[in-house]
Amino acid sequence: MSTKARLDIKTANKIVEFLNDLLEYDRAAVAALVAGRVICNQKMADHPTVQVHSQKDGFHIGLLGILNGLCGIKKNGYGLIVAHFGNDPKSSFNRLKKFTVDPTIPK
């Protein structure tokens, strides 16, 4: 696969549909996977499309950063797939509500 920063909206839509379907099966498990990060190396951090965050103890990557990397990145460096969180009335935590493709991208 080419690592050019080409936007693949069709793949992003398929991923979003799949992730939203998985929320119906086990929202807590999907939320934990999306929230989780692991330390990665400089080579991964230098990948042209994968979303990696630099923190004080190194570079960190998560599932959403990898999936966004598959779909390409926008000129601002962000991916197409967006996770939406909102208040959970049963607790003091934010709850993963849904995934969408960035609405600023033309369909």
Describe the overall structure.
By secondary structure, the protein is of the alpha+beta class. The chain has one domain (9-101). It is built from three helices and five strands. The chain has a three-stranded antiparallel β-sheet with strand order 1-3-2. Strands 4-5 form a two-stranded antiparallel sheet. The two termini are 23 Å apart.
Structure summarized in a few sentences:
By secondary structure, this protein is an alpha+beta fold.
Question: How are the SSEs ordered, and which strands pair?
Answer:
Layout: H1 9-35, E1 38-40, H2 42-45, E2 52-55, E3 58-61, H3 63-71, E4 81-87, E5 94-101
Antiparallel strand pairs: 1-3, 2-3, 4-5
Helix content: 25-40%
Name the average pLDDT: 88
Per DSSP E runs of 2 or more residues, the count of β-strands stands at 5
* Radius of gyration, in angstroms, nearest whole number: 14 Å
Task: Give me the side-by-side strand order of the main sheet.
Answer: 1-3-2
End-to-end Cα distance: 23 Å
